[in-house]
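As a warm-up, study this chain.
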Amino acid sequence: MTQEQIRQLMAYEIQINFLDRGCVVRVGCKSFAFDSVEKAMAELAAYTKDPIEISKKYAPMEFIELEERDEICAKPQTL
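Now compare it with the structure written out below.
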């Protein structure tokens, strides 16, 4: 594990709220709902092994350069 990965893990508090069916995992200010505890634990295990890549999967906008993000946000959105 690289120093960058360790810093990423230390940067955000992780909370898990178990529900009747599944759970909600909160990493920093972002919340993610899982329909099974098993799926959530698998993703958390993957996150602890490679937090940067898993973060890119769930919060890709956090890893896009500011100029590219501005371009994406400036485009008209269609539904």
